[in-house]
Write a structure and sequence with these properties.
single chain, mainly beta, six-stranded mixed β-sheet, six-stranded antiparallel β-sheet, 2 helices, 3% helix, Ig_I-set, cell adhesion, cell membrane, Neural cell adhesion molecule L1
Length: 1235
């Protein structure tokens, strides 16, 4: 058969052997031993005693040292009750003996206790009464028994009474209340005592508890201990047994309990708290638990302690036990029996149940060691070693079997052993014989002795052990019995070991998620495919459970779906081959939001404060970081849940509650995964009413009408009414009066009639309800309604300094203000210029407000050389009082502003005529003008020219002898007796004589040719004719109508299709421009309209003209654009300052009519008042301006001139008889527009 031997390294050796059976006698060996017990009936009497041996053992029992007349049956020595004896006769100490021909084995002594089944005496129903906050003990007092009953406190519905820190069951079975609440009142507190051995539950009569209200509950109580009594107690515990230390305090609020060891950390002792912290429990106590302990019970009113001395002793326990063996005659036997205990046990020896006598010189007994020399067949027996101390005894049976048999090997020959690398190989060679035969092992390599290898050892039973096996250890091994020819061979095969590559890890999974646990491994290919076994908490995950919850993937990975709390635990993956196995463990920890807290409880109210306590819910492996306590006031409709937060290690919160309110509470837990659902909402808690604890704030007067006092205040929150019948008590009295007037109103405001205007009153508002008045407020000062001021400032004076004036006045008497003086208003009015010729389009008035504390104010922004008047009023919240008498004043003369405009005409290439308009702000009487101009050159060092004009009525000035190739900058200033004002600045240049165009582009059609050109920037308009000659036979020169250079476009018509022409323009006596063209052939009207030649030509011409237009516009813009056409000050100029002449220049005149003898100059306008020129505006040549800055005509000054001649007549701003509009667009007009 196959035998498996599992080593600590989980390496299994397979052994193939035949079955050899040796028939021989065997001393008795006990297989079942009795235990002490308590019997409540004859059926409970059962003491076990069973043994094996050859021949079959017989049994006998000894009670209290006397042999019982008892006979076993069916080879069993179990003792049971028999006959008609009463149960009490069976009580005593028992020991069982098992005998056969080779010896006697015996059990240790056990105690049998007999009792009648526990019963309850007749009881009276108990009734207890206690005040709120007091401590109470409900006694159980179960019937006495040698077996300790389990106590269950339940109600009449057989539901357990809720246990907490406040309500606890003690070790004595009593129910302890640290403090009682009203809801503890009930009449069905029932103690149920369960005797498990007696199979009995005894319910006592229900106890009634009535809790009465008490006013002392608000004061609280200092902790005291109900159990244990006194400051100190001592406890003796036996090693391996359980021990419970108890600490049950009373007090209000409920005390908390803290346990500690006086010398070491409590966790090192193996202790843990139970029963809501009231017990310190040791399940299997060790020597480490020995020492001093302390229990600390505390609340907000104090603390109390109790100390415990724990002494740990031990019943005897075996350290070394002697084995049962076969011996051959003449050998020396040593039986070593060592036991420990506290106190140290004594060891005694017995042979076949009889104490050892010191009569055999071959035998020596020293403590726990028995030595027997030169054994003979008669020494075969069962030896008993017994260790005893005050706590008990233990007994060990071991036999010595002296026998003589021939040597033989029991293990099979030719067995093949397989082991994996690194494992332990065990090659068996079990020899039998007496005396015991000696065996030796040899390998194929005879040159090396096996036992010389440190990895090899031979056991006493002949087995060869080879540790840390390697592939080189494979081969044939031979086992022989010395001094004989008996031997067997064993074959060893060392295979690769199974290795776990990736095992399951410790993972955290959010509840409801999935988890994957890995199990990746390698194994020797010569082995059968391994078995993969998954376990959860040591229990196999069977294939039948692989379904929706578990999925085993092909690579060994285990998938767990929809992970819940029940899936939490330790998971292990074991890979099992025929030879070895490898195990790896991991875990699944389910994390989730905490469960809602439970068991919300409230302490008694004290000064409107109470403590809310709760029991935390399950944290689901993620510690609670905080609790959210929500409080809702329900008496008032605006009540909402208000949150308070405490740290996760605190399970109570002291709350301040408002009187005359109804509250409910709920608590939520928070951890790193989120917030739990709220706990169940507590029952409603109502607070008692009381008088108001606050008074209204912000009491004030909001009076607006004379003769009334309006008292206003902020209403108190309804939650602060503190009772029913809430009102406001409003009190008022005039300052310096003694009698208060009172009234009661439900809400603000309150109106007091019949008061004087703006009188001072003391006011106060007090909160009251049906229980009385709230605190008294401090009176505040307010005033009745304001009226209009009665007086205006007096003694007004004005000091003028240029464009500002200092106004001074005498303040009004405060009694005439009839309110809070907010300030004064200064009303100013400009009457006009001192010259008297000004005509204003709108009246200039404005008001300056001044603070009431001032007696002077500086008024700025006055115009020079003007007449003003002012008056003043007083104003308060009600409004303004009467105006003061009007006070006139005037401002001095100043320098004038810049002239309103500056325009130019250019009669010739060396002449300019300047036209301007007087300043819009003369600031006095003009006495003339000063003109400065200077030629603009690169060197910037040309000398300036100055012209002084002494006649203020002059508005134009001609200049001659100018350089036609230069530009000039002009500065024109007005003058008064106060000096010169800022200038108006312009740049300008004269216009040059015009010439016909030379850069002409042509577009040829069937019967016409279109000519276009770009007029020169600084050139005057010039008239010319286009001559053309047909190149056909008999052709003559013909001439077009008169054309102007400013037209920029002309269409020469009346030509013959398909004909060559010569075009010519002359200037003076020489040819200025010529070209040859060929008109297109005449085509019939065929096909589509859009394919006709004339249409295509027209479209091409339009596109070309548009391109030229864009290019020229871009060039024009790049040169700077036009100069400005209008000054900002124009709109402000008075009509008296405008020049009398208001002319506009005409349009282009027809070429057949008189041409204009003068044209405008090429100028750039600069800002008024600037001493430097503005940005240059390019070389525009054709813009003039009206007085208001608008264009004069469209292109004034560019009228037609006689063919081949320039204008030389007198200058005229008006050109009559404009020519007909040109056929094409005017490029000059486009270029001259302001950018």
């Amino acid at each position: 058969m196959w035998l498996g031997v599992v080593t600590p390294c989980t390496v299994m050796v397979n052994v193939v052997r035949s079955s050899n059976t040796v028939y021989m006698l065997q001393p008795p060996t006990l297989t079942k031993m009795p235990e002490s017990l308590t019997a409540f009936s004859l059926d409970d009497v059962m003491l076990l005693c069973e043994a094996t041996g050859i021949p079959t053992p017989s049994f006998r029992w000894v009670k209290d040292g006397k042999k019982l007349n008892w006979m076993g049956h069916n080879g069993s020595g179990n003792f049971t009750a028999h006959g008609d004896k009463p149960l009490s006769d069976y009580q005593g100490h028992y020991r069982c003996y098992a005998d056969n021909t080779l010896g006697t084995a015996m059990t240790h002594t056990v105690k049998l206790i007999t009792e009648s089944t526990p019963t309850l005496p007749k009881q009276k129903r108990s009734h207890k009464t206690a005040e709120e906050g007091a401590s109470v003990v409900l006694h159980c007092n179960p019937p006495r028994s040698s077996t300790i009953p389990h106590i269950h406190w339940m109600d009449k519905k057989l539901l357990h009474i809720g246990q907490s820190e406040r309500v606890t069951t003690g070790l004595d079975g009593n129910l302890y209340f640290a403090n009682v609440l009203k809801n503890d009142s009930r009449d069905d507190y029932t103690c149920n005592a369960q005797y498990i051995s007696a199979r009995t539950i005894l319910p006592k009569e229900p106890i009634s508890l009535t809790v009465t209200p008490s006013n002392d509950v608000a004061r609280g109580r200092k902790p005291q201990l109900m159990q244990p009594q006194g400051p100190h107690s001592s406890h003796l515990a036996l090693r391996g047994h359980s021990l419970v230390l108890e600490c049950i305090p009373k007090g209000l609020p409920t005390p908390s309990v803290l346990w500690k060891h006086m010398d070491v950390n409590l966790s090192e002792t193996g202790a843990w708290t139970d029963n809501h912290g009231r017990w310190l429990r040791f399940d299997s106590i060790t020597q480490k638990a020995d020492g001093e302990y302390e229990c600390l019970a505390s609340n907000t009113h104090g603390s109390v302690t109790h100390s415990y001395t724990v002494t740990v002793e031990a019943e005897p326990y075996w350290v070394k036990e002697p084995p049962s063996l076969l011996y051959s005659p003449g050998e020396t036997v040593r039986l070593d029996c060592q036991a420990e205990g506290i106190p140290t046990p004594t060891v005694t020896w017995s042979i076949n149940g009889e104490p050892v006598a010191d009569i055999d010189p071959r035998r020596r007994v020293t403590g726990g060691v028995l030595v027997l020399k030169d054994v003979v067949f008669g020494d075969t027996a069962v030896y008993q070693c017994e260790a005893t101390n005050k706590h008990g005894n233990i007994l060990k049976n071991t036999y010595i079997y002296v026998i003589e048999l021939p040597a033989q090997i029991l293990s099979s020959d030719g067995v093949v052993y397989q082991v994996t690398e690194g494992g332990v190989a065990r090659l068996h060679c079990e020899a039998f014989g007496s005396p015991r035969p000696q065996v030796t092992w040899e390998s194929e390599d005879l040159q090396n002795t096996l036992l010389s290898d440190s990895r090899v050892s031979q056991l006493t039973n002949g087995t060869l052990e080879l540790f840390n096996s390697s592939r080189e250890d494979s081969g044939v091994y031979t086992c022989s019995i010395t001094h004989s020819n008996i031997s067997i061979t064993a074959h060893l095969e060392v295979l690769k070991r199974t290795v776990m590559l990736i095992g399951p890890q410790a993972v955290e999974v959010t509840r409801g998620g999935d988890s994957w646990l890995d199990c990746h491994f390698t194994f020797d290919p010569h082995l059968n495919p391994p078995q993969i076994l998954w376990r959860k908490d040591g229990q196999k995950i069977m294939e039948s459970s692989l379904g929706d919850k578990y999925t085993l993937l092909g690579n060994g990975t285990l998938r767990v779906t929809d992970v819940q709390s029940a899936d939490e635990g330790l998971y292990s993956c074991e890979v099992i081959t025929d030879l070895d196995s490898v195990l790896a463990s991991g875990s699944i920890t389910v994390v989730a939001c905490p469960s809602p807290p439970v068991f919300l409880s409230l302490s008694e109210e004290q000064d409107h404060n109470l403590t809310l306590s709760w029991t935390p819910g399950n944290t689901h492996n993620s510690p609670t970081t905080e609790f959210v306590v929500e409080v809702k006031e329900e008496k008032h409709p605006e009540g909402k849940w208000e949150s308070h937060r405490v740290t996760g290690d605190v399970n109570h919160l002291e709350l301040h509650l408002l009187p005359y309110s109804t509250y409910r509470f709920r608590v939520s837990g928070v951890n790193r995964l989120g917030r739990s659902d709220p706990s169940e909402i507590s029952e409603a808690y109502s607070t008692l009413p009381t008088v108001p604890e606050s008074y209204p704030l912000n009491v004030r007067s909001e009076s607006t009408e004379p003769g009334t006092l309006v008292i206003m205040w902020e209403e108190i929150d309804r939650r602060l009414y503190n009772g029913s019948g809430f009102q406001y008590k409003v009190s008022w009295r005039q300052v310096q009066e003694h009698h208060w007037s009172h009234t009661h109103v439900p809400h603000p405001p309150y109106l007091v009639n019949g008061t004087r205007a703006f009188s001072s009153y003391e006011m106060k508002v007090q909160a009251i309800n049906s229980l009385g008045e709230g605190p008294h407020p401090v009176p505040v000062i307010g005033h009745s309604g304001e009226d209009y001021p009665l007086a205006s400032p007096s003694k007004i004076s004005v000091s003028v300094d240029n464009s500002s004036a200092i106004v001074r006045w005498q303040p009004v008497d405060t009694h005439t203000v009839q309110g809070h003086l907010l300030g004064y208003k200064i009303y100013l009015k400009r009457l006009g210029s001192q010259g008297g010729r000004e005509h204003r389009r709108k009246e200039e008035r404005w008001v300056v407000e001044v603070d009431g504390n001032k007696t002077k104010e500086v008024v700025t922004g006055l115009k020079l050389y003007s007449l003003y008047e002012l008056s003043m009023t007083t104003f308060n919240r009600k409004g303004e009082g009467p105006h003061s008498p009007t006070h006139p004043f005037r401002t001095p003369e100043g320098v004038p502003g810049p002239p309103a405009s500056l325009d130019f005409e250019s009669p010739s290439e060396t002449e300019l005529t300047l036209h301007w308009r007087p300043p819009t702000q003369p600031n006095g009487q003009l006495v003339g003008y000063v003109l400065q101009y200077q030629q603009i050159s690169d060197s910037r060092n040309s000398p300036p020219q100055v012209e002084v004009i002494y006649d203020p009525t002059v508005t134009h000035l001609p200049l001659e002898g100018l350089d036609p190739h230069s530009r000039y900058v002009f500065y024109l200033r007005g003058r008064t007796s106060a000096g010169q004002g800022p200038p108006i600045t312009r740049e300008c240049a004269t216009l040059l004589d015009g010439v016909p165009p030379s850069n002409i582009s042509t577009v040829v059609g069937e019967r016409s040719v279109n000519l276009s050109w770009v007029p020169g920037d600084r050139y005057r308009n010039h008239s010319f004719h286009i001559k053309y000659l047909s190149k056909t036979v008999g052709g003559k020169w013909e001439e077009s109508e008169q054309v102007n250079t400013l037209q920029a476009f002309y269409s020469l018509t009346g030509l013959q299709p398909g004909t060559q022409y010569r075009l010519l323009i002359t200037h003076g006596n020489y040819t200025h421009w010529e070209d040859e063209i060929q008109t297109t052939e005449l085509r019939g009207v065929e096909g589509d309209f859009a394919t006709q030649g004339w249409f295509i030509g027209l479209i091409s011409a339009v596109v070309l003209l548009l391109l030229l237009l864009l290019v020229l516009c871009f060039i024009k813009r790049s040169k700077g654009g036009k100069y400005a056409v209008k000054d900002k000050e124009e709109s402000q100029m008075d009509s008296e300052a405008r020049p009398i002449k208001d002319e506009t220049f005409g349009e282009y005149s027809d070429g057949d009519e008189k041409r204009s003898v003068s044209q405008p100059s090429l100028c750039v306008e600069s800002k008024l008042g600037s001493d430097d020129s503005l940005a240059e505006y390019g070389d525009s040549v054709d813009i003039q301006f009206n007085e208001d800055g608008s264009f004069i005509g469209q292109y004034s000054g560019r009228g037609p001139a006689p063919t081949g001649n320039e204008s030389s007549g007198p200058a005229s701003p008006v050109n009559l008889d404009p020519p007909p509009p040109p056929i094409g667009p005017s490029f000059a007009g486009i270029l001259d527009r302001t950018s």
